[in-house]
Amino acid sequence: MKVGIVLGLHDSPLWITDQIRSIQDQSHTDWVMVIRDDGPQTETSALAQSTTQRDARISYRCAEPAGFVANFLMGLRDLPADCEAGAFSDQDDIWNSDKLARAVDALRDFGDRPALYCARRHVLTERGIVGDTLLYKRPPSFANALIENIAPGNTIVLNRAALDLARRTAPLASGVFAHDWWLYQLISGVGGIVIYDPEPVVQYRQHSQNILGAGEHGLTWLTNKLAVTKGLYRARIDQQTAALRTVYDRLTPENQALLDRFCAARRAKGPLSRLRAMRRLPVRRQGTLSHLTFLAAVVCDYA
């Protein structure tokens, strides 16, 4: 299975060499990579372009600045037509050598049904690996995807059917908060398969320049909870559900109905009415404390 990788690049020379080397060291060797640079032409750009001269599987494209979501999603359209799977890479992580092999093995048997592979991550700091992201125990679902993302982009691999769907819908998703959350919602929403691998496959580098952090840990966790009280979580759900409306006809009838009921519950007047309406739905976050926090946000109109 030929895997096409989109590496989103933006103006930081730190660690990109380690990231590219870890991709070159994959046990699954049938891959190509497009480095999509939407930042100013800097030392990082020069480093990235130099790799294309040493490895024919890697190409470089200078893209218009449009934000990380568009850089990744539109990057899928830059992959060669013969790619049978699509993946995303950040510029500062380290992939375990079996990352692609595990994904390819998991995705092999789904044929024309869209399927998305995702996995846990090691958390890497200047002190080395300090732990792993949370182990999610509830199965992936559209009901979960409406309020939470469990599919980090740097672990996602899409089979051919999911890749084709993501390419076709990319222009419709320009306003989403996060491309990985969008893909979790899209693939689960159309009745596709979402595979969550409990084994970490990426060393996710946690540092001050991350656009989004490993949300279950330390200061990032606290920052995310404070963001709820500022209305950011509600705004993010607004962005995601607006994009889902543009692909409404692609959703299964069951998920169309769930989306309608979810949006109606969010609009219910009064805290108790919102809470009652939301609790009638199957939507649930993975962790008990996390879900209780969500329900509190519903009461306060922060979700």
TrEMBL record:
**Entry GO MF terms:** transferase activity
The UniProt keyword set, sorted, is:
Transferase
| Protein's name according to its UniProt entry | Glycosyl transferase family 2
Sorted alphabetically, which SUPFAM superfamilies does this protein's record hold?
A: Nucleotide-diphospho-sugar transferases
Organism equals Celeribacter baekdonensis
Q: Which residues form the Glycosyltransferase 2-like domain?
A: 14-112
- According to the UniProt entry, the coiled-coil residues are none
Which Gene3D superfamilies does this UniProt record tie to the protein? Spore Coat Polysaccharide Biosynthesis Protein SpsA, Chain A
Top-level taxon: Bacteria
